[in-house]
Amino acid sequence: MEPRDRPLGVARTREPRQDEVGEVVADAEDVAQESEEASGAEDGGAEGEEEMSERRCLNCGAALHGGFCGECGQRAVPPNPTVRELAGDAWQELSGYDGRIMQTIRGLARPGFLTREYVDGRRAHYLPPVRVYLIVSVIYFVIAASAPEGGGSRGTGTVSGPRGMRIGISRNSDGAVISETDRAELLRGVESAPWFLRPMIRAVAEDPSAFRARVFTVMPRVFFALLPVFAAVVALFYRRCHFPTALVFAVHLHAFAFVVFAIGEAAKFSGSAFVADFVSGILALIFAVYALRSFRAVFGGRWPVTIAKAAGIGMVYLVAAIPAFIIIVMWASLS
Fold first, then answer.
1. pLDDT, mean of residues 34-51
2. Helix or strand or coil: residue 117?
3. Can you give the residue range of the structural domain that contains 320?
4. Is residue 188 one of the residues assigned to a domain?
5. Residue 74: helix, strand or coil by DSSP?
6. Cβ of 288: how many Cβ atoms within 10 Å?
7. Is residue 68 situated within a structural domain?
8. For the purposes of burial, counting CB atoms within 10 Å of the CB of 290, is it exposed (0-12), middle (13-18) or buried (19 or more)?
9. What distance in Å separates the CA atoms of residue 14 and residue 29, rounded to the nearest whole number?
10. Partner of 153 at 20 to 30 A CA spacing, among 35, 59, 214, 276?
């Protein structure tokens, strides 16, 4: 039909060229390929999510989304770890970034550092203060209970008893032993001694080693009870200080004191009284400097004020601790 013979309203159609047909087919193939890739990614994501949802904490059963459980904090470890994995965990705890033991030891060596970190809220990398105190106090009392008296020297000597009494002491490999003559004299002088010393004298006369062991059994409990007393004395001298801060400071300071005392007791194993006394003197100086720097690091102030307040705290605490030492002696004597 000629153009002039075409009815009105009917458009003229044109046959598509070969290149246009190829482009349409290529576009259709690209769309189909992208659709397949998208569906594959969705399937892979679903499989990954399903795999992640299957990972559960072996302790509380919560879903795991990392190396640690978000509910209980347990490390995500297999139920049957290998020796290599166990060794790796031990090394991480002791020397790794999250090894709180080494972090705590390094922090305790810096005066006032652990207390400042705890008060400022940075606590995740360190052991809790009470746990630090309990660990080092147990170490100290174990060493002190097993250390030889007098630096491990053997021989004879005397100690002072009540009312000027001199008690003969002989030493052997088992410890200090009172001679039979002096034991009898000590027991005869019990009635003339003050009433609060009589149980102690009887206990020492009957079995000095057992009395010493009982003293070291009672001391940790009494010293732990003295922590709030020391914190109260500190808060009395530093009025702007909150009591919880003073209590944390008291725990950390006593923990370092136990570390120092443990080293001093360990020096007695050298077998030399001179070495033991020399080490104890050096450690006493170190602790005095450490305590002063701790007071200044935590509570601030100028050095003269810090020294004066530390001396006052020490004297008041010593007076307040006298009843505690009486309790230790009486408790060990009657138990």
1. 51
2. helix
3. 129-151+194-334
4. no
5. coil
6. 12
7. no
8. buried
9. 25
10. 214
